[in-house]
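re: ur question from earlier - yeah i can do the single chain one, its not a big deal. heres the input i used so u can compare w yours
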Amino acid sequence: MSSLTLDAADAVIDAVIERARALGKAVSVAVVDAGGFVVAVRRSDGARPLTPDIARAKAYTAAVMQRPGKMLKKWQENQPVFFSQLSQLPGAALPIMATEGSVTIKKDGEIIGGLGVAGGTADEDQVLADEVLAALGYELEFAAWGVAGTPAGAGDGNGAARTTGKGV
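and the output i got, formated as tokens:
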């Protein structure tokens, strides 16, 4: 069983903040372990005050729901009451945010945490998260909810989706 170390979390955060700075964006970044517990959070200079909390909620969502927030959007649209109730559960530490910039951290087929990026547009947050995780060797493919089989790109033909694909 793999775990997400502080060094690995810091490497992810450093890379996101460096990439965001190159784009002229001030962001906050959070990394949590597979249980949704904070490993590290950082707010870059100039990032808005609420962005660390948003980043934490995005990271938490990606970890505990075991899918990137972008994949959860359609489900949330179809069952808004269910999603609003998730955040009210006694064990829920943070709100569930089915949105871009909320990416599950997966290595060697195992979910080891969540990454949340906040401060850019939704698309910018997503691109930052995806690009950095891919560059650091993390996996970005997840089977669609309720679909047995392997992720898209593995030749399963069962409707699995890549986080960067359209219509997810």
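Strands lie at 28-33, 38-43, 102-107, 110-118, 141-142, 161-162. not sure if urs matches, ping me
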